[in-house]
Amino acid sequence: MPKVEAQSEPTIQQIKIPSKDVLLQKSCNFIAKFEGCKLEAYKCPAGVWTIGYGHTKGVKKGDIITSEIANDLLKQDTKQFLDCVYKEVGDICNENQMVALTSFAFNVGVGNFRGSTLLKVIKQNPKDFNSVRSEFLRWIYADGNALKGLKKRRNAEAELYKKA
After folding, report:
1. Known active-site residue 44
2. Domain ranges (residues) in the chain
3. Which CATH number is 18-162's, of 1.10.530.40, 3.20.20.30, 3.30.450.20, 1.10.238.10?
4. Which one of 35, 88, 135, 157 is the catalytic residue?
5. pLDDT at site 132
6. Has residue 10 got a pLDDT over 60?
């Protein structure tokens, strides 16, 4: 009689991460929901000149762009953050976790992401969802003030991170 072994749940290392192109598009879609798109330069709550979907590099008062340029900038900007996230946790996180962390990094910056206790907690145990949620929710402040929009975004990132 053939031996039948019980199948175990796949480990995160066994989960196939989709291509970076798929992750990039999903990350852009997720980020766009929270950033919104403004075609004329404005100062964000942190006082930084911003345009399109949260693009800040080289933006100054009076700048105007098209929707097409805003989409291109979102894709370029998101790719930088996805590359960082992929390098840090691409071997231990699933697709949803990668998208959530890319959104987080996009919002707080690469340096803050790499130095965050969120990243440290994930590297220690990517399945410790309670600790991960707590770490996401530490990042809801701009200039010392808790912002409703950031709290909503961090909750959505934490929920997405938790999904298999």
Report:
1. yes
2. 18-162
3. 1.10.530.40
4. 35
5. 98
6. no
